[in-house]
Structures are given as structure tokens and as C-alpha cells.
């Protein structure tokens, strides 16, 4: 339902897919879960799909939309010409996918640490290649939140353009991601405060400047 309200929820999709693959025994079960998600969208969009399907699909998602340079918060340190270049979009998409792959390895490793067993994408296997029997694949709430929040944050970092209201996408996840490792010392504490202060500074400067955008990206 959330996707029907704001498309940015799709940034959680890679993490959610990984969780489905980890907890379901087969691809069929994962496909059923995804079908339920898609089915909700079809039901909610039915009044529009049955009347103006082409217009609805084009405008509801509008993946080819060109963003306005004056509203961007995260790329003002680029010139407007460079901001509008298609190459930038392709580069960000590539980096987004690369970051998801790298983090997927981290997520799988973290799941193994928490559960004491390797959690695979389809079935859990022992090191000798035999399928582990009666092995419970329990994912902790902390792992689930970390996976979903990180998936969303990766999308934010490589977002084509961020506007001021987009801060509501993820402001509530930042403290959790900063404190998830449980480490407590002066240096880390100072870094966390600087990160929070930098993000707040960037979103409270209007219009955005090259400096505020650079601080946000860093």
C-alpha cells in the first residue's frame, strides 16, 4: 500500500527481496510473497488501469522524468549541464547496484553470525554439501531492520536527485544505523554527532549550495 502513496518505498525492495529469499524454502514461496505485493498494487490501481492504463502507467512511475536542478539538495556541487546528463543517471544506477551487491554479502554474513548457521538464498547447506535438516532460519528483528534501513539508505545515497521533503524518507533510520554496531568511544561518538549535524545543516540551507550538497553526500 505504501508504494501506492510514495514510490520511494521501492528503495526497501532489494532488502525485502533478500529477506524473502533467506526465510522461504523455495523460489515458489518467494514468488508467492512477491505476487501478494504486486496484487495489492493491481487492486489499488484497478480503477485507473481499467480506464486510462497507458496514462496511469506512464505518470504513476515516470522513470524517465527529468529532475529540476534548482530543487536538488544533493548535487548542487555539479553544474546544471552535468546534473542533467544521462551519463550521471547511468553511473548512479551502476553504483547503486554495486553497493547493493557488496552489502548483500555483509547481510548474509551478519545473518550467519546471528543464527549460527549459513542462511542461503534457497536452501541451507552444510559445508559438505548436504542439505541441513530441520534447521530453523530465524532472523532477528535487529537484522531485519538493519537490512531494510541499509537498503533504503543506499538508494538515498545514489538517488538521482533529493528534494527537501525527501528527508522524511529516512530521518528516523539514521540514529539506528549510526548506533547499530554498539561501539561506544569518544571518536565514534564525535563522528556520529558530526554526521547528524551535517545532514541537518544540508537540509536547512535553502536554496542548496555546493557546500551543503557536498556535506550531505560526504
Explain briefly what this protein structure is.
The protein is an all-alpha fold and 218 residues long. The chain has helices at residues 2-5, 13-23, 27-49, 53-61, 80-83, 86-115, 141-157, 174-179, 186-203, 210-217.
Instruction: Give the overall shape, derived from the CA principal axes.
Output: globular
Number of domains: 1
Question: Number of helical runs?
Answer: 10
* DSSP, total strands: 0
Strand content: under 5%
Q: Which sheet architecture does the biggest sheet show?
A: none
Give structural notes.
- The protein has helices spanning 2-5, 13-23, 27-49, 53-61, 80-83, 86-115, 141-157, 174-179, 186-203, 210-217.
- The chain is mostly helical.
- It has one domain (2-217).
List keywords for this structure.
218 residues; mainly alpha; 10 helices
Amino acid at each position: 500500500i505504501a508504494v501506492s502513496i510514495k514510490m520511494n518505498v521501492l528503495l526497501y525492495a532489494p532488502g525485502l527481496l533478500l529477506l524473502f529469499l533467506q526465510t522461504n524454502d523455495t523460489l515458489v514461496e518467494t514468488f508467492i510473497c512477491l505476487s501478494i505485493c504486486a496484487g495489492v498494487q493491481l487492486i489499488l490501481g484497478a480503477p485507473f488501469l481499467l480506464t486510462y492504463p497507458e496514462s496511469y502507467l506512464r505518470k504513476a512511475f515516470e522513470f524517465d522524468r527529468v529532475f529540476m536542478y534548482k530543487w536538488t539538495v544533493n548535487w548542487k556541487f555539479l553544474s546544471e549541464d552535468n546534473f542533467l546528463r544521462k551519463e550521471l543517471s547511468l553511473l548512479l544506477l551502476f553504483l547503486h547496484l554495486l553497493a547493493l551487491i557488496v552489502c548483500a554479502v555483509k547481510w548474509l554474513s551478519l545473518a550467519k553470525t546471528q543464527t549460527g548457521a549459513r542462511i542461503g538464498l534457497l536452501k541451507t547447506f552444510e559445508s559438505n554439501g548436504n542439505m541441513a535438516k530441520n534447521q530453523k532460519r530465524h532472523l532477528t528483528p535487529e537484522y531485519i531492520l538493519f537490512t531494510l534501513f541499509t537498503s533504503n539508505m543506499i538508494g538515498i545515497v545514489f538517488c538521482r536527485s533529493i528534494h527537501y521533503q525527501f528527508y522524511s524518507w529516512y530521518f528516523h533510520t539514521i540514529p539506528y544505523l549510526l548506533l547499530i554496531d554498539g561501539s561506544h568511544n569518544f571518536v565514534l561518538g564525535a563522528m556520529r554527532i558530526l554526521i547528524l549535524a551535517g545532514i541537518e545543516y544540508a537540509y536547512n540551507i535553502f536554496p542548496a549550495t555546493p557546500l551543503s550538497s557536498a556535506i550531505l553526500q560526504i
